[in-house]
């Protein structure tokens, strides 16, 4: 299990330095981080995608004797969407599977955040018109809206 958590963290951090503020989509929610992440996980699984890992960053901080606001990361994907992108450029595997972060900001407001797939992959040899990119964008939009709402 520890190996899976370390692998999940490595996957999550693979593209972290690439994201600019323009590339990030944030969705406001009135739920707690845990409730928003539970709703997101249920939406992802209900859509037929695979959840690979759920990382509780705040729990990791507490385990190291540190404090931080609640933050959890969900790593998930669908090979029918991800595979064509990685076929176009194997380096897309650095950014896939998809990731959504649920976090509480300094004011306690909870957000769901993710990097726009088109922006995330724009430095790779992946055609912006590849249908999988639009499908990923639509899926992230729908999943986060569902998790943030009811």
Automatic annotation (TrEMBL):
Protein name: Uncharacterized conserved protein, DUF302 family
Domain DUF302, first and last residues per copy: 55-117
Record-linked InterPro entries: DUF302, TT1751-like_sf
Signal peptide, first to last residue: 1-21
SUPFAM superfamilies according to UniProt: TT1751-like
Gene3D superfamilies in alphabetical order: TT1751-like domain
Keywords linked to the UniProt accession: Signal
Keyword check for Signal: yes
Organism: Sedimentitalea nanhaiensis
Domain of life: Bacteria
Transmembrane segments: none
Classification via PANTHER family: INNER MEMBRANE OR EXPORTED, SLR5037 PROTEIN
